[in-house]
Amino acid sequence: QVQLVESGGGLVQGGDSLRLSCVASGRTFRNYAMAWFRQAPGKEREFVASISSSGVSTIYTNSVKGRFTISRDNAKNSVHLLMNSLEPEDTAVYYCAARSSWGGPTTWGPSTILYWGQGTQVTVSS
Length: 126
Hints:
seven-stranded mixed sheet; single chain; globular; 0% helix; mainly beta; four-stranded antiparallel sheet
């Protein structure tokens, strides 16, 4: 069992930056691939970025490439999402997620996730 707790959300203006953090319980964090998803009001939850258990491989959805960076620190059981050049379209609840296997860009649907955090709100004003 893995428990995930996100932090770092808030209200910012367009063009600003935010850094989301997710801390995991348990000693097996290093065995999990980690990801960030987001869900805007009235929309389905969507994949944002993922990172392999070692941290070597990353995947981003097209709309955040070049603006967001996912990273992890296995010694601290944490994963982060640095979000630069934020846009109003980035407004959503952001969720930290974990699963046991890595996979290519098309494999990161919400149904493949084992564990979810409770979410943190990110609001970007224009």
